[in-house]
């Protein structure tokens, strides 16, 4: 964990055309994010999706032990977006760089089974 004892959230948005959304969704949830599981300092990930009439937005949040762990994944220029080639080809646009946040609070609800 970082000096505050909290993890770092890496937040990023990407958009696809509606006809590419299912392929992108499957690629990221079946290959890209599970492939990160063994990276040093990787704590987990979430992907959320919002379908619109003209494009589909994806919000990806990865959680890391520290900025150094993120650098191990993304390189020294960790504030630049890091997207696998196959995934990037499906995106119509994406954030040029992710945002990084220190986690201050985390809770699970009863429906999550971890309350």
Please sum up the structure shown.
With 115 residues, the chain is α+β, with helices and mostly antiparallel strands.
Characteristics:
31% strand, single chain, Alpha-Beta Plaits, alpha+beta, 5-stranded antiparallel beta sheet, 115 residues, 5 strands
Walk me through this protein's architecture.
- It is a single chain.
- The chain contains three helices and five strands, in the order βαββααββ.
- By secondary structure, it is an alpha+beta fold.
- Strand 2 and strand 3 form a beta hairpin.
The percent of residues in helical segments reads 10-25%
Q: Which blocks of ≥5 consecutive residues have pLDDT under 50? A: none
Which whole number gives the mean pLDDT? 91
| Strand percent estimate | 25-35%
Query: Structural class of the helix and strand makeup?
Result: alpha+beta
Task: Summarize the helix and strand pattern as letters.
Answer: EHEEHHEE
What is the fold-level CATH name, i.e. the topology? Alpha-Beta Plaits
Overall radius of gyration: 15 Å
**SS summary, helix count:** 3
The end-to-end distance, rounded to whole angstroms, is 22 Å
CATH architecture tag: 2-Layer Sandwich
The number of E-state strands comes to 5
């Amino acid at each position: 964990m970082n000096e505050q004892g909290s993890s770092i959230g890496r937040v990023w948005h990407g958009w696809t055309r509606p006809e590419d959304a299912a392929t992108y969704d499957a690629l990221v949830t079946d290959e890209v994010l599970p492939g990160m599981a063994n990276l040093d300092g990787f704590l987990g990930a979430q992907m959320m999706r919002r379908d619109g009439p003209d494009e589909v937005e994806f919000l990806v949040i990865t959680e890391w032990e520290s900025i150094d762990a993120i650098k191990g994944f993304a390189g020294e220029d960790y504030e630049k977006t890091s997207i696998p080639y196959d995934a990037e080809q499906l995106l119509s646009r994406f954030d040029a760089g992710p945002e990084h946040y220190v986690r201050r609070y985390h809770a699970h609800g009863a429906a999550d089974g971890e309350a």
